Amino acid sequence: MGTPVLVFVGGGPRTTGLLDRLAASAPELLPSAAAPSIHVVDPFPAGGGRIWRREQSDLLWMNSVAEDITVFTDTSVTCDGPVVPGPSLADWIAGEGSAVLAAAGLGHQVQLVGRKDFAPREVQACYLGWAFDRAVSALPAGTELTTHRERAVSVTDRADGRQCVRLAGGRQIVADVVVLAQGYLDRTPTPADAELAERAAARGLTYLPPGYTADIDLSALRPGQAVLVRGFGLAFIDLMVLLGEGRGGRFTAGDDGTLTYHPSGREPVLYVGSRRGVPYHAKLGYPSAAAGPVPTRYFTAGRLDELGAGELDFRSVIWPLIAKELTAAHYRRLFEAHTDRTTVDWAEFSCVLDAADVFDPAFAGYAESAVPKDADRFDIRRIDRPLRDLVFGSRDDLAGGLRDYVRADLARRRDQRYSADRAVFDTLLSVYGVLAVALTTGRISAADRIRFVEGEFHGLFSFLASGPPPRRLAELLALHDAGLLHFAGPELQIQVRDGVFVGTSAAVPGEIRASALVDARLPRPDVRAATDPLIRGLLADGELAAEDLTDAAGRPLGGGQLLADRCSRALRADRSRHPSRFLLGPSVSGSAGAAGFSRPGFNGPGFRQNDAVAREVLRLLAAATARRAGSSVIETSTIEEGVRHAS
Question: Are the CB atoms for 132 and 46 separated by under 8 Å?
Fold first, then answer.
């Protein structure tokens, strides 16, 4: 009687983080008599959810080393609730996780995955499942938690102020508080993708649209078939792995460490290109000198406040500050750690930098005199587009240039003489923290967020700092040497012509003709195009609001997110806030920590938001208990049938 009910729609890492913070603050905010009933609704296993489920190929790896992944708060996290430390992935594997992995048939991974290694995603799935169980065990005595391995299809308000969550099987759960944390939402194809799919089908071609590589059926790609691939990031790396080693091929290493690929005969032949025309940079292979986040100097919340109230233009105001911050990070480390490669001291250089526009040719000229070697200089535009303005005389020339580029990248990323690259990586994380504040406080418009923060800047961040393990790029070279992977060039253009896909690049003559095309990238998020019936129903009923984004000419941009207030409460179409419905995750405007797992010691913004939301949820549960304690209404069950649901 009177038990407060909390429902999570979505059982992935965000829900695990919220449960952890609920357990931490419950002794302070929830009366002992108010132990809640909690329901977690997700068709995939709680803890990992869909993306981090165990049931995917053991060849797919994390793209961060084990010591850089955590789902637990530590003393760096600034939050109102008590910090409850927990192990990083590396510490877990070496400690509590060894028994968990052994029980899951993965005991061999304890010896294979060290602190600096890239764990298979199935190991991360076990870590997240363990973290979920740990959070549940720490909840207040008397708490009942039920997981429902099915989809939630609607949420509706009741006359008594509670909410009814309807599951796909017909069951309905009456809740005091609902947290929608579904993670990345599947969407209907964009008009361009739908048109391409229709044209391909009419000609008997194979087209695999954007999606999560682990979820895509690759069986339509035949042995020996020419396959154009558009996209050179992490989705491509997964594709390459599944179509090579995943089909029975294997690698061997020579005495010098160079890999040779031995085909199984079942592989297609890949022709890969993208806007940049090069793969993401390999992850760095040497330790960071920084023990925690690096304070920013130019791109700070204080500096944004100095620029006045209201929205700030990203391209003309914010981007120059970010570029200056990254430039300073690079040169500061170079001047402090590698003084033999500079001609002036840091004090002099930093004074020039303080007053400079880093895009001004005058600053480039000064940097050239102060830093003689081209490889030691920092030019963010050149770094972002390494093949810009280059023209190759033939595809063999392009292949030679790309092989040299990848080999140089692998050498540089393991060479601590280029530790300035690490400084830029660490500073990018700090820049993201300032951007999160700017976004949640309305300093960046929604349109600029879509085009520049989630578009250009996130693309740059991924290219520089979120690339694959170095081993994967070595495998890429081996596949190229085996004749199973070819480079299509930058600014890859795709047409359907003469009954085939045709790929061209202005940087290299000729064209590539193929009977299959894979768009190796994630679908562009757009909640108005979401296929999730719960989200579609709430939007149709005006119970959720989504951004309507247009460019300067009034053309729709797409890519809008759901709207929530600063406490993560859902906003309705009329911009009123729902008192007890929360929204969190990558499809929600202002949701923090959606870009990936936090590093220990870096005060992850997702932890701070989880703590704030968890404490507000506890207050609402306590209030619901108090209201019903003073009421004569007796609730016989939290499960009801026949309640109308949003369509």
Answer: yes
CATH for 40: 3.50.50.60
Give the domain extent around 338.
Answer: 301-386+400-464
- Number of Cα atoms under 13 Å in the Cβ half of residue 532: 27
Q: Report CA 106 to chain centroid distance, whole Å.
A: 26
d(CA 111, CA 93): 9
The Cα 494–Cα 484 span in angstroms is 20
22 lies in a domain?
Answer: yes
Distance CA 124, CA 66 (A): 9
Strand-pair partners of 250: 262
- The maximal CA–CA distance of the chain, rounded, in angstroms, is 84
**pLDDT value at position 633?**
41
Using alpha carbons only, how large is the chain's radius of gyration in Å?
A: 26
Sign for the pseudo-dihedral over CA of 530, 531, 532, 536: positive
Domains: count for the chain: 3
What is the distance between the alpha carbons of residues 414 and 421, in angstroms, rounded to a whole number?
Answer: 11
Single-letter amino acid, residue 287: P
Q: How far is CA 237 from CA 282, 476, 589, in A?
A: 11, 8, 29
Strand partners, 502: 495, 513
> Does residue 36 sit in the same domain as residue 106?
yes
C-alpha span between 176 and 619 (Å, rounded): 11
Q: Tell whether the model's pLDDT for residue 612 goes beyond 50.
A: yes
pLDDT at 131 over 90: yes
**Same-domain check for residues 157 and 255:** no
The amino acid sitting at 88 is: S
Compute the C-alpha angle 426/384/215, nearest 5°. 80
Looking at 485, 504, 519, which one is the last position of a domain? 519
| Distance (Å, whole) CA 128 – CA 143 | 21
Task: Examine the domain organization and report whether 162 and 255 are in the same domain.
Answer: no
Quick check: 266 and 223 in contact, CB under 8 A?
yes
pLDDT (tens digit per residue) in 59-91 = 999 999 999 999 999 999 999 999 999 999 999
Taking each helix axis from N to C terminus, what angle separates 121-137 and 13-29, rounded to the nearest 10 degrees? 20
Q: SS3 letters for 164-211?
A: EEEECCCCEEEECEEEECCCCCCECCCHHHHHHHHHHHHCCCEEECCC
Hey, how many other C-beta atoms are within 10 angstroms of the C-beta on 455?
15
- Residue 386, judged by CB atoms within 10 A of its CB (0-12, 13-18, 19+), counts as middle
User: How much is the mean pLDDT over the chain?
Assistant: 92
Q: What is the pLDDT of residues 143-179, one digit of tens each?
A: 999 999 999 999 999 999 999 999 999 999 999 999 9
- Element spanning 462, H or E: helix 458-465
Tokens of 396: 């063999």
Q: Quick one: average pLDDT of 550-570? A: 81
Residues 6+ apart with CB under 8 A from 501: 200, 205, 228, 494, 495, 513, 514, 515, 516, 517
Q: Is the pLDDT of residue 637 over 50?
A: no
φ and ψ at 458, to 5 degrees? -65, -35
State residue 110's pLDDT score: 96
Q: Is the dihedral of CA 25, 28, 32, 36 positive or negative?
A: negative
Do both 167 and 211 map to the same domain?
no
451 contact partners, CB below 8 Å, separation of at least 6: 314, 551, 557
Within a domain: residue 243?
A: yes
In contact, 299 and 321? CB cutoff 8 Å: yes
